[in-house]
Amino acid sequence: MTYDPEPRYPVVGGQVETGCEALAADVATRRPAVLAVDGPAALPWERFSASLGDALRAAGLRIRTRDMRHSLASWGEIQRRTAAAELSGDPVFARTFDGSLSALFDEVPSVEPAAEEVTLVVGPGSALVDHDLLWYADLPKRLALDEVQRGRAGNVGQAPGEPGSEQRLLFVDWPMLDRHKQELASRVDRYIDASDPDAPRSLAGDALRRSLAALAHRPFRTRPTFLPGPWGGQWLRRVLGVATDAPNLAWSYELITPESGILLGDSEPAEVGFELMMAGYAEEVLGRTVAERFGQSFPIRFDYLDTLDGGHLSIQCHPSEEYMRETFGVPYTQDETYYVMFTTPGAKIFLGLRDDADLDAFRAEAERAEQPGHAFDPERYLQTQPAEQHRLYLIPAGTPHASGAGNVVLEISATPYLYTLRFYDWLRRDLDGELRPVHLRHAFSNLDPRRRGDAVRRELVPEPRVVRDGEGWAELALGRLPELFFAVHRLDFADEVADDTSGRFHALNLAAGEEVEVETAAGDVHRLSYAETMVIPAVVGGYRLRRLRGDPCKVIKAFVR
To answer: pTM above the 0.85 mark?
Structure first.
């Protein structure tokens, strides 16, 4: 068994159906007067509505269509109502919008049923209309982002056909639409994966909820997303065998839950947003104590940063908790760690300030690099640490850092992931040829001057500590800081080791070894191959890791302390 980029899980109490004909058959059986099909703005509604309309008419149904996008307030008014998200003069970041989709309508339209007709209401907010049947047509986040980046999709409230803004998609649309979708999760009659709007895959709402409930009680993986980047490397494609037409792969989003999907079904699965599992089963997944703290937000993320045969990451930091909350509107911040999966001779990790770092000079050089475009050497201000395989580097908010070229790091972090504040990016251009922006006002406002000198190695590159052991196995605490709400441990074992969630979920990654078997006390079995990431829901309790093939194993385990 090798790395699986598309982990799939069975549908409980139903099956995935493909094509609009299956959707039309459902309508023909139920004969609703009003069918509401809600979903995100980035979905190609014209294509989807046309395909569905053709199928409904072919099934002998008379239909009329109402597009909810035409009932939203004017674009100018929507911009005014969402202005709280704007950061004046900031072309990259915005404050995470906390308003509701319903607030963007002046008045939710009234739809009068017509005799012998199905009124098809489509578009964002369709569920707000009185309806007999409710469907949710979704688009995986990676595809929605690509549609907006290519100018083929707009933002909520824009006229159909107008290109949208990536900034607005990330900070306004997604948070608002995810909350709306989570509110609908318990009553959706059918969930539709509209990745292919001409041949959508769907499953009944009851089957969706049963499937997610079953998965919330056993180990599972989310579908990873692979992205190229200007500094990207070759490890993900060479070692893990990830197919791509891009020149490199910079990231693998192994478990970034705001964008993660879960594949339900076998040969032609439907992709379901992770946020729907969290809407219904947050306590089972997270554990009661963690759910009380984080609600429906899965608080830990795993992703790979691949610089093998690539370049250094940008010199960056992340917001302090106060700045994150007050400026960006996010309740917890982006504390991080790097776990080195693979490295090459001479590779390094930029981490913390030199003891003699002159911060005024650092800012002056960063400003000259931003405007006239003068390169400088960040090592005049930042320390570097040798990149050591299987070592953990702690990166609390405000710490300047970067992974150097020739590394593969598993980033184990708090879930917020959009507020990376760059000091310097080596005058590098993005894949479209544009100079990559830096964020000096935000970055220097959050730079923590205490992270300097000898304390960096002592506090941020700690030695592993054995917390429990037995014959042929040991559990090591790799590093812990009071500021970080999560801990990173590692289970080293020759053959097998037992563990228990003790009421708090575990996130696992097989960092060394070829393949292990995860068996729960309830008898559920899941295999985990090298470099794969897995969630062990809190409700699982006791479980056992057993080596199946390869050398002795190292399994990373992250959890909320």
So the answer is: yes
